[in-house]
Amino acid sequence: MTPATLPSTSIPADWRDFLALTKPSVMRLVVFTGLCGLLVAPGGIHPVLGFTAILCIALGAGAAGALNQWYEADVDAKMKRTEQRPLPAGRMDRQSALHFGVGLSFFSVILMGVATNWLAAGILAVSILFYVIVYTMWLKPRTPQNIVIGGAAGAFPPLIGWAAVTGDVSALPALLFLIVFLWTPPHFWALALWVRIDYAAAGIPMLPVVAGERTTRRQIFLYTLPMAAAAVAPWPLGLAGPVYGISAIALTGWFLVRAAIVGFRQSTPDDAMKPEKALFAWSILYLFLIFGALVADHWLS
């Protein structure tokens, strides 16, 4: 796949188009998990430096989103879900998007290193490169396992937040990384089931397109099992207390129920909401709640 050659822009890009390049809906979850990693890290950090670290995570995520849209403009033009983004809609030229993404990348990494430490900056740089090069350019157009491996890109923020405070990485942030990493396939495959026609039209080998709906539904449930183990693990390992442990069991138990419904029951016309759509919505709320429970546990301990 090569970057798209887009028609000349007929409407000048404004600040809203540059904001759209950063994928703000995705950024919210990235920023929140990074903030939680920062808040539960031992030792604390000056509020100004903490704010700067979270700002850098947000800018890095935005940079990755912009570079993703720069590279996938031709694919976005073929999908109803993405055809109104600034590049396929012709509101912005590719060069502007590329310069914006590269500039944000360098600025976020350098600012993180200067404000906190270079380990956090290095992990931030790896997360941007992983999302753009490994996931967007290499895995996504080539294999239905793209989101399994590529999910690591979205799992880095808790590590970055923790490292910004401590200058190191230990067992708890590694587990937080693992939770997000294992959460990503059931979360994203639920979306892929919902919009598989779009992916098929764009030629993206997502699992529902290549292996079919039934296999994808089973895989959603199977990947939820190790995710559930990772989500509960901080409590028995002594890395979190009972507030987190009880919350994790309850929230993850409901996630398992939703995943089982997707995996083993076909939707019917009588369903108010398709099971995969319900799971996708719940999965987003789940990650907010379970990371929030970790912060609450930390403050109450």
Commentary on this structure:
Converts heme B (protoheme IX) to heme O by substitution of the vinyl group on carbon 2 of heme B porphyrin ring with a hydroxyethyl farnesyl side group. Its EC number is 2.5.1.141. It is found in: Cell membrane. Belongs to the UbiA prenyltransferase family. Protoheme IX farnesyltransferase subfamily. It is a multi-pass membrane protein. The chain is mainly α. The model is unreliable at 1-5 (pLDDT under 50). It has 14 helices and no strands. 72% of the residues lie in helices and 0% in strands. The protein has helices at 15-21, 24-40, 47-71, 73-76, 94-115, 118-139, 146-150, 157-166, 171-194, 196-202, 207-210, 213-232, 242-264, 275-300. The radius of gyration is 19 Å and the shape is flat. The chain folds into 2 domains: 15-169, Tetracycline Repressor, domain 2, CATH 1.10.357.140; 175-301. Helix 5 (94-115) runs antiparallel to helix 6, helix 6 (118-139) runs antiparallel to helix 8 and helix 13 runs antiparallel to helix 14 (275-300).
In short:
This protein is mostly helical and 301 residues long. The protein has helices at residues 15-21, 24-40, 47-71, 73-76, 94-115, 118-139, 146-150, 157-166, 171-194, 196-202, 207-210, 213-232, 242-264, 275-300. The longest helix has 26 residues, at 275-300.
